[in-house]
Amino acid sequence: MPKWMATSSASFEPPIIGCVVSERNHTFGILKATKQCVINIPTLELAAQVVGCGNTSGRKLDKFKAFGLTQTAAARVKAPLIDECFASLECKLVDAKLVAKYCFFIVEVVQAWIDRSRKDPRTLHHRGRGAFMVAGETIKLPSKMK
Amino acid sequence: MPKWMATSSASFEPPIIGCVVSERNHTFGILKATKQCVINIPTLELAAQVVGCGNTSGRKLDKFKAFGLTQTAAARVKAPLIDECFASLECKLVDAKLVAKYCFFIVEVVQAWIDRSRKDPRTLHHRGRGAFMVAGETIKLPSKMK
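Above: the input entities. Below: the structure tokens describing the complete assembly.
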């Protein structure tokens, strides 16, 4: 898993995501050069692997092998999906204007994969220094919001 | 509460946040004109008010009055804090380069307020169309990550 410091959905149509990737990370150079990536979304079951991946570098280690993760081919980009993840988003870089100043990449999701059998996936949300908030229940309120 | 479509922490030092605000929202014009805002972070107890605020416009309605929320003065910006919220971030606009194309505002947090007595606040995470994931427990793993 690339060490994404943060991601946010920036628009729905087209589906645009903004990601900050530290220039110290191996991912930074690969993303700049290939203009493609896959964002894989792990759940609680993968917490140990998430921390393992975050504490090592792809420059020196084959993380798939080291952490027992399975590569599968993506449909529209060359980077692989992580099969164990709940969801994977194939992305292409669409705007690099803020990369130099903020390490901020704007990507468009060109293909999305999700395990539909899991209604309330226990996704992980980094609170810093190895602490992760685990997703709890989902509530539904009447709303006009998209 | 302004209807933030998404926020993400983009860097730690200085603390920078990226926010997409729809140009249809009253917040969009205010943020562009004043170059300041407060990001208030609500928890489960405020879910009904969050949806109420998201389904109405500050152009036509005094949301503080309509939803029983309390204004308190901020220290470094003119926009008010919402007293009932778990945390409030006073922000100043530092980069508007991507506003025209993506409605994306880059702000710096100049003052932060948090209710430290609440260790695991049940924050709300919009999944779309009135569905909110509620924050569950926080787990801690040994890690070198910031």
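Note for the figure: The first strand of chain A starts at residue 6 and ends at 11.
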